[in-house]
Amino acid sequence: MANASSAVTDASCSCASSRSNAQVKPFEWVQGERLPPSLQSHAAFLNEARDVVQGAQTLVQLLEWDEDRRDAASSDADAAPLFDACQRSSLQRFLAVSLGLLHARIEAQCEVLTE
CB–CB of 32/43 below 8 Å? Predict the structure, then answer.
């Protein structure tokens, strides 16, 4: 992800061509109250993980939209981007760290289940 954040600051970057158009099916909450107590913590974790994934996807979409506005700003005075290169880079690092922490929690949960 470090390469992606440095690529953002490069105005000649053609990152738009490598964007993913993948659509994620909206998540449904796991109703933990209906589960046995031993599974309720796993249900809570899944709900939190789903929130992180949805938030990350929304932020990626916002960053892509903002990059489009940045690209259009050179030809249209009304299409100013919301984020400057520093802010965009910070948000991309935030995404990387958030997803890294989520990955670590998923791994920890998997270890608990395999013990």
Answer: yes
Contacts of 53 (CB under 8 A, 6+ apart): 24, 27, 102
pLDDT in tens, 18-44: 445 555 556 667 787 888 888 888 888
> How big, in percent rounded to 5, are the helix, strand and coil portions of the chain?
70, 0, 30
Do the beta carbons of residue 92 and residue 8 sit within 8 Å?
yes
pTM above 0.85, yes or no: no
Q: What letter represents residue 82's amino acid?
A: L
Angle at 96 between CA 73 and CA 74, to 5 degrees: 5
Where do we find the tokens 């998923």? 106
